[in-house]
Amino acid sequence: MARIAIIGGGSMGEAILAGLLRAGRQVKDLVVSERMPERARYLGETYSVRMATVAEAVETAAFVIVAVKPADVESVVSEIADAAAQAESDTVEQVFVTVVAGVTIGFYEARLPAGSPVVRVMPNAPALVGAGVSALAAGRFATPEQLAGVAAVFKCVGDVLTVPESQLDAVTAVSGSGPAYFFLFVEAVVDAAVANGLSRAVATDLAVQTMAGSAAMLLERLDSQRAAGEDSGLDTSAARLRAMVTSPGGTTAAGLRELERGGVRAAVAAAVDAAKTRSEQLGITAE
Ligand SMILES: NC(=O)c1ccc[n+]([C@@H]2O[C@H](COP(=O)([O-])OP(=O)(O)OC[C@H]3O[C@@H](n4cnc5c(N)ncnc54)[C@H](OP(=O)(O)O)[C@@H]3O)[C@@H](O)[C@H]2O)c1
Q1: Which residue in 9, 12, 37, 157 is a FRET match for 126, CA 20 to 30 A apart?
Q2: pTM above 0.85, yes or no
């Protein structure tokens, strides 16, 4: 089985490591490089995984996953490039995978050995509990088989889909920042519930379980539509379910009218626009 190197053992690196092990990948096929000694010790002890320098980790890896903060990418990629150049004689072609927000495929292609396959991934925080969604964008030298290999890795921490790289800022604004939008909504529901006499504990249980249950209903609908081959109109699922739970003249209709009056749709649209613009501003390109 292909050896996978994870460079950067922070929260996302650990999530990927834990997901791969959960999915049955063998510890002998994984190697992690983490520069913070305490963190490296924790990962080594918790997962019984081999910890190594960047150069050692890259040496025998078929997939090199970069999971450091954007500020560390420049130096890490130059270390990886040196190690990859030395490993070039190997028969295994190395695929370079990045989860680093905002750093373009071109940035890696310009620094890695010529023709290196690069796949850029935008995962999100729920990957930490195995329930993420990761958008993959393939560089020009990545083959469909290599992209499928990367998809299999990220399947271990949630759902996976593929988009052109040009859409990753929008993806960041939706699924990357999205968990915070939903957390804010739950927070607001809890506060409103408390204002209406429920204890904070009861309010939190009700709000969280309602969000999880609503997501489960949506997922079931998406799954059955996909199974039936109805890929078009998937985005109408939420509207249909909302209509289904809104009886004429009832409590839900009264509540929804207030949300609309409060401009919830316009606020969400503005939030996604602003997050996308911010993602574009923070981007690090090839130069
Ligand atoms: N967490 C998320 O939900 C999420 C979602 C989407 C994308 N991402 C992306 O994933 C990347 C990692 O995020 P994170 O939350 O896991 O960050 P993090 O917790 O800061 O993890 C990065 C880790 O990499 C280590 N590191 C830095 N340079 C290194 C080197 N040369 N060799 C070995 N290890 C090195 C860092 O050590 P030090 O502490 O010493 O710096 C740190 O422990 C980021 O670029 C982020 O944009 C994260």
Answers
A1: 37
A2: yes
